[in-house]
Amino acid sequence: MSKRPFIIACIPAFREEASIARVIVKTLKYVDRVIVCDDGSPDMTAEIAERLGAEVIRHERNLGYGAALCSLFKRARELDPDVMVTLDADLQHDPDEIPKVLSPILRSEADVVIGSRFLADEGRTMPRHRRVGIKVITELAKTVSYEGISDAQSGFRAYSRRAVRLITPTEYGMGVSTEILLKARENGLRIKEVPVEVDYRVRRPSTHNPLYHGLDVILSTVKHMSIRHPLIFYGIPGAAALLIATFFWVWTFQIFATTHQVVTNIALVAIGGTLVGLTLLTTAVILWVMVSLIREVK
Known about the structure:
Elements: E1 7-13, H1 20-27, E2 33-39, H2 45-51, E3 55-59, H3 65-79, E4 83-86, H4 98-106, E5 112-116, H5 128-142, E6 157-160, H6 161-166, H7 176-186, E7 191-195, H8 210-228, H9 230-259, H10 264-297
Parallel strand pairs: 1-2, 1-4, 2-3, 5-7
Antiparallel strand pairs: 4-6, 5-6
């Protein structure tokens, strides 16, 4: 007789006293335990969650969506569940779709499951500006994680025990969603997407400025790319800078050989290109060595 899987739900929440009760009550139908990270809410979010039997992790002040997920992942590793599911506290995600997100992991088909908003109706119910923004971010995320994903920013996900143990998010901002996918790929985790519906008619569909959200994700992705692939990220621009500098050095010497004069502007470009190129190449090598050493230690 097989053992019943231990399933937990992790819910990041900020100022969600109007919806957190419904989310917890509906979620408890499908999981064994609900953990809420109250990210410094000034309202009754934490108190309501506790009264309904959820375990509550409290942040003294608002640290961000990523910080809430970091705390939830840490607690999940302590509990060591068979499956962890994450969903939003504002009812955009329907808890009744939790079984759909859990299913591939329970069937041992995946380690990470993403509830994609673009598989059901291609995101037609999503506000246009958000749809365009998520598409752009997803295309960027594909370059550092999984090529086949359609929704890199969905917070409705499920993780196997192996994924929970191997993924340690560190980003405090919205870039955490991409960071998790990047680390999942680095650890060879299997990923799958399932279609889910999202309700954008909720009371507060988003507390984040779309421009800030997009910039945060892009900067986070670029940061992780620079750390994990320094020879490419810094080395290629460095080599290009030295090639440009070489061209201007040749030009400078040609003019000097003909006129016995140094054209200051051309010489300055040559000097500047050389300095930039050497700095980037040095940075690339130093980071590459450091990353290699850290990987060996692990």
